[in-house]
Amino acid sequence: MRSFFVSLLLLALAVSSYGQTLSSPSNNGTDQSAKVTFTWSKSGTTTPSGFEIAYSTTTNGTDLPTGTTAPTALTLVALNTANASKGYVAYGGVYTGTSHSYDLDSIKSVVFPAGTTVYWKVRQKVSGVWANWSAASSFTTGTPVVSVPSSDVDPGTVQVTWNAYGQTVNKMLYSVDGTNWSDTMDITTSPTDFEIPKGNGYSEAYVALFNDTSLVAQSDTFAVSQSDAEISVSADTFSVGTVQDAVVWNSYGRTVTKIQFSDDNGATWSNPQDPGTSPSDFVFPAGADRDSCVVGLFDSAGVANDSAMVVSSLFFVGASSAEFTTVPSGTIAPGPFTLAWDNVAQVEIDKIKMSADSGATWTALSYTLAGAVRTAAAGSYSFNFLSPTAGIEYAQVGLVKAGETDPFVVSDVFELSGGGASFTIPTQYTDPGATMVVPVSIKNTQLVSGAAGKIRAFDLKV
Hints:
- By secondary structure, this protein is mainly beta.
- The protein is built from 2 helices and 39 strands.
- The strands form 9 sheets. Strands 2, 4, 5, 6, 8, 9 and 10 form a 7-stranded mixed β-sheet that branches. Strands 12, 14, 15, 17, 18 and 19 form a 6-stranded mixed β-sheet that branches. Strands 21, 23, 24, 26, 27 and 28 form a 6-stranded mixed β-sheet that branches.
- The chain is rod-shaped and about 160 Å long.
- The protein starts with a helix and ends in an 18-residue tail after the last strand.
């Protein structure tokens, strides 16, 4: 009988001494992850046959079990029930070894709220008997934070540091009023290189962590400096004249009064034009080919050679080819015809030539241009087409630059019909019985070069 009571006493002492060591999260730890893995060490040397974990967010953990009491006898939930307020779960891992853990997030999908204090205990089962619950340990989850490196930042890439402390976040956004958010960027780890957008300058700006569309945490207020003005052109090569949407610019709140042109990389400025709104049409001035052209924004009255606020990169302006505006077409009779052309680039035009063999050879029409018409922005010249000596002839006309032989602008092919000399007596007369005067009109559409084209005499027979 005595031995029985001694054994019973020893068993009771053994059970009461099974207190586990709770190692993680650390007792009274702060800024802990909201996704918790409980870690503890067994008590004694005997391999346990079971563990149970109880946790609660009730103040001081007053609803946690003590001694060998089952949690269901108190206000905790049933076994293997867990939520973000309280839980009672059974460990189902390997019992050998000393240290054991239970990943509450992976197994039960529990994520504690930010800034929450959690109390927890563990008990173990040995030889079919549950030992006393361990002493309670507590920890407090962290509140997500996000910050930029300075209270004053420039637009561009900024390294943003953040810690979600286990809360789910997947995006970073930007705001200049703390209400409207934009410039979404997907994030995974801290720090994150975030692109602060260019703007007019803001005294109140924020970056924030989001879980999809839900705001999780936002930074303290910081200021963003005003962006430098920008200007660019829509192509790297232009012809003279008006080009739609040629200049793209943004002054970021600065006053802009003119856009000007330079063909010497900004050494001198000319051709001031009202900017309107971006993108702006621009008239590139006439001239020869130029490869050092830039445009600039100006906040003055646009007087030549003012200092530009910002200058574009270099681009090329080529002299536009002239083009005919009035030219023969179809079939025309020899005789006077006025050619007209546009010459926006004011290229110097020296001659007009004609070809009867699709441009294989060109013959000067003996019309060498002179005076202002050579470089006029819009030119014209009137002359007689020579009749071909044999029937219909296919022809083209072209404009020739000074110092060159072949035309640089050529018309379409047209047909030139044959001609000749003819008389016209306007009235039929009766026999007057005496001398009378008869007006005779002579038309010579032959107009070929040389003596063969001249009318030397004619006969009139009555």
